[in-house]
Design brief:
- The longest helix has 10 residues, at 68-77.
- The protein has one domain (17-118).
- α1 (20-27) packs across α2 and α3 runs parallel beside α6 (109-118).
- β2 and β3 form a beta hairpin.
- The chain is globular and about 35 Å long.
- The chain has a three-stranded antiparallel beta sheet.
- The chain is an alpha+beta fold.
- The protein is built from six helices and five strands.
């Protein structure tokens, strides 16, 4: 984390959640392909109320955010669980500004990737 993030900062919630069948429909792939994407860390899914869901903004149009798979791999290699990776992606950081998840959709994505690399050291 950067120095600008207070120790007691709380992550924001994603704008919405997609159930896995909805992700499959949006990406125009089979549900088994969505499960494979989750296993391969191309997509992040967590359990909410007993159902695996994906933050809606991580599925842009008919694709997954471009840098998301690389960031998820970096975070996993640094020892982050899926829940911890979700928290990292949605923790406000005024130096971005916003959250790393917000930044994945624009020119700040490379900075998010750099910060994810730094978590392993």
């Amino acid at each position: 984390m950067t120095e600008s993030v207070p120790a007691d900062a709380q992550p924001t919630e994603p704008t919405g959640w997609l159930a896995l069948p909805d992700v499959a429909e949006r990406l125009e792939v089979s549900i088994s392909k969505v499960h494979q994407m989750i296993r391969d860390r191309e997509l992040l899914a967590v359990r909410r109320d007993g159902v695996r869901v994906v933050p809606a903004e991580l599925v842009a149009n008919q694709t997954v955010r471009k840098h998301l798979p690389g960031i998820l791999t970096l975070l996993h290699d640094a020892g982050y669980s899926d829940e911890a990776a979700l928290r990292w992606l949605y923790l406000p950081d005024e130096t971005l500004p916003g959250t790393p998840a917000d930044a994945l959709g624009d020119h700040r994505a490379r900075e998010v990737k750099r910060r994810a690399q730094a978590t392993g050291f």
